[in-house]
Amino acid sequence: MEGSRIKWNRDSITYYVSNTNKSTFKTKFDLMLKRIRYFVTVARTCHFGRAARELHISQPPLSQQIQLLERELGIALFIRSTRRVELTEAGKALYESARVTVDKLDIAIARAQRVHHGEAGHLRIGFVSTSTFKLLSDSISAFHTRFPDATLELFHMTSIQQAEALKREQIDVGFLRSPPSDSASIMIHREPLVLALPPDHRLARKRKVRFEELRNEHFIMWDRKQTTGIAEQVLDMCRSHGFEAKIVLEVTNPAAMLSLVASNMGIAVVPTSATQLLRQDALIFKTIDDPKAFSGLSLVWRKDQASQLATQFVALVSELAD
Questions:
Q1: How would you classify the pairing of strands 78-80 and 294-302?
Q2: Residue 27: predicted pLDDT
Q3: Architecture of domain 4-116
Q4: What's the per-residue H, E or C state across the chain?
Q5: Which residues of the chain are modeled with pLDDT < 50?
C-alpha cells in the first residue's frame, strides 16, 4: 500500500499511515478496519458462506476483501480447498491478536455511545450537610438503578466550596442552599426553618416562637465564611424584627451546631431536615412563627455543562422533586 506502513504483532495491531492527508488516512483506516473485521469473522466460522451471512454481505465481495488484505500484508491467511477453509500459521497468529482487538474496540465503541447518550460515565456530586437526607439518597439510588454503568463520586462541601468547585470543573452538579448567580439551578426542595432549643429553655413549652422573642438570645450561627443562604437569612430576619443577632459561635456542621445547643451554649435556626441528626430527647424543636422562615435546597450545575450524564441526573432529580 503506497504511502503507508503496517505493523502487526501478537499483542497489538497497529496501523501507521505516513500520508498527511486526513481524509486519505480515514479512508485507508476504515478499509483496513473493515477487512480485519471480515477476517476475524471468516477465521472464527472457518466458512466464507456462513461468515458472509453473519456480516450481511454476499460471498464474492467478502472473498475479494480477504484477498486484498492478504495482498496488503504480503502473507496468506487461509488455506482454501473445495471442502474446507483453514487458517495458515500466519493467519492463526493474526487471528489471536485481531480477535481480542476487535472485541475491545466493540466494547469501547459501545461504552462511548452510552457516555454520549448520558447512560454511562463518571459524575461528581457536591452536597451540603443538610442535604444528606431523603432527596439526596433517593436521587443516587434511582440514578444507579436507571444507569448502572455510571459511577458517582460524592463530595461533602459547603455552598461556597461548591460554587468554586463548579467554576474549576471539579464537580459536575451540587446540592446547596444558596445557588451562585453564574450557575444554572433549580429549586428541588423547600422546608421550614425551625428553632433548636435545649430542653430546659424558657421557650421550650411554647408551641410557636415569634422571632422578636429571640432578641436577647445567644445564637450558634452557620459560618458565614464557609456557607451562604441560611446564615444571611437568619441575620436578615433578626434585623427585620429590630435587632442584631448575638452570635457566640459559628460552625459549618449541623450536627456540631445541634450538639452545642444541647450543651446550653445557645440556640440555633436549622432546616427541618437537620432535626434527624440528634436524639429527639436531647433538644426541643419549635416552629418559627414567621412566613419567611423557610429554606430552599437547590440543584446547581454549570451553564456550559457538556456532560450528558449530568443532564440526565438533573432530569431525574427534577422528576423526584416534583
A1: unpaired
A2: 61
A3: Orthogonal Bundle (1.10)
A4: CCCEEEEECCCCEEEEECCCCHHHHHHHHHHHHHHHHHHHHHHHHCCHHHHHHHHCCCHHHHHHHHHHHHHHHCCCCEEECCCCEEECHHHHHHHHHHHHHHHHHHHHHHHHHHHHCCCEEEEEEEECHHHCCHHHHHHHHHHHHHCCEEEEEEEECCHHHHHHHHHCCCCCEEEECCCCCCEEEEEEEEEEEEEEECCCCCCCCCCEECHHHHCCCEEEEECCCCCCCHHHHHHHHHHHCCCCCEEEEEECCHHHHHHHHHCCCCEEEEEHHHHHHCCHHHCEEEEECCCCCEEEEEEEEECCCCCHHHHHHHHHHHHHHC
A5: 1-20, 25
Give residue 17's pLDDT: 39
| Per-residue model confidence (pLDDT) at position 279 | 74
pLDDT reported for residue 28: 66
User: Where along the chain do the CATH 3.40.190.10 domains lie?
Assistant: 121-186+297-321, 190-294
Single-letter amino acid, residue 123: L
Task: State the pLDDT at residue 16.
Answer: 39
pLDDT tens sequence across 243-279 = 999 999 999 888 899 999 999 999 999 999 888 877 7
As assigned by CATH, the class of the 190-294 domain is alpha beta
pLDDT score, position 24: 55
Question: Does the domain at residues 121-186+297-321 carry the CATH identifier 3.40.190.10?
Answer: yes
